[in-house]
Structure formats: structure tokens, C-alpha cells
């Protein structure tokens, strides 16, 4: 058994370049029809699929990000008192 609770599974590449993700994997990862996946190649030439956040997950990720207008002049200066969250972000290391 792997750390993913299932043995290594095999799938095939179709003539259209499609790959079926086995049901066990979809279930464990909570993947549903229409979910978006990103496809990458790692340094060992392995294909890496990553699930993309759903619109609801994006909402939950960004809901606590403060919204404020930041006026920056031609020299790149802004008023830290009018844009405290931006100022805090700019000072992070």
C-alpha cells in the first residue's frame, strides 16, 4: 500500500490523448465532473496533475483579503495612513 490508501493503479491513454483517473483516486481526492486540473511535468519527466480550486474554494481563500484603494503618485509614494493594509503588505519580508 502507498500513503494514498491504494495500490499503484494503471490507466491507458486514449487515441484522443485522454486519461481516465481511477474511481478510487477521484473519490479519495474528492474530484467531481467538471473539476479543473493543472498538468505539469516534474524534473524527472513525471506527469503531475493538481486539482484547481473551485469558485467556492477561491471565494473562501480570498474572502478575508482586505480591499482598499491605494493612490500611488508618479514617484511611487503612497499614504500609509490611507492604505494601512497595503503598507503592511509592502513592509513584509
Topology:
Layout: H1 23-29, E1 37-41, E2 47-51, H2 55-62, H3 84-91
Antiparallel strand pairs: 1-2
Descriptors:
11% strand, 93 residues, Pemi-like Protein 1, Chain: D, elongated, two-stranded antiparallel sheet, alpha+beta, 2 strands
Question: Can you describe what's shown?
Answer:
The chain is built from 3 helices and 2 strands. A hairpin with a 5-residue loop joins β1 (37-41) and β2 (47-51). Helix content is 25%, strand content 11%. The chain has a two-stranded antiparallel ribbon with strand order 1-2. The chain is an alpha+beta fold and 93 residues long. It has 2 domains: 1-52, Pemi-like Protein 1, Chain: D, CATH 2.10.260; 63-93, no CATH class. The two termini are 42 Å apart. Keywords: DNA-binding. Residues 8-54 form the SpoVT-AbrB domain. One of its GO terms (molecular function) is DNA binding.
Shape: elongated
CATH C-level category of the largest domain: Mainly Beta
**Helix/strand order, N-terminal first:** HEEHH
For the biggest sheet, the summary is:
2 strands, antiparallel
Number of DSSP helices? 3
Average residue-wise pLDDT: 88
Number of strands: 2
Cα-to-Cα separation, first versus last residue: 42 Å
The second-level CATH architecture of the largest domain is Ribbon
Q: What class, by secondary structure content?
A: alpha+beta
Give the structure's gist in a few sentences:
Pfam families: MazE_antitoxin. This protein is an alpha+beta fold and 93 residues long. Helices cover 25% and strands 11% of the residues.
Amino acid at each position: 500500500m502507498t500513503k494514498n490508501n491504494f495500490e499503484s493503479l494503471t490507466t491507458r491513454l486514449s487515441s484522443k490523448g485522454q486519461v481516465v483517473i481511477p474511481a478510487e483516486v477521484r473519490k479519495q481526492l474528492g474530484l467531481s465532473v467538471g473539476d479543473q486540473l493543472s498538468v505539469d511535468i516534474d524534473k524527472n519527466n513525471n506527469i503531475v496533475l493538481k486539482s484547481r480550486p473551485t469558485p467556492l474554494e477561491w471565494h473562501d481563500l480570498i474572502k478575508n483579503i482586505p480591499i482598499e484603494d491605494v493612490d500611488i503618485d508618479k514617484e511611487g509614494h503612497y499614504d500609509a495612513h490611507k492604505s494601512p493594509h497595503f503598507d503592511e503588505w509592502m513592509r513584509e519580508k
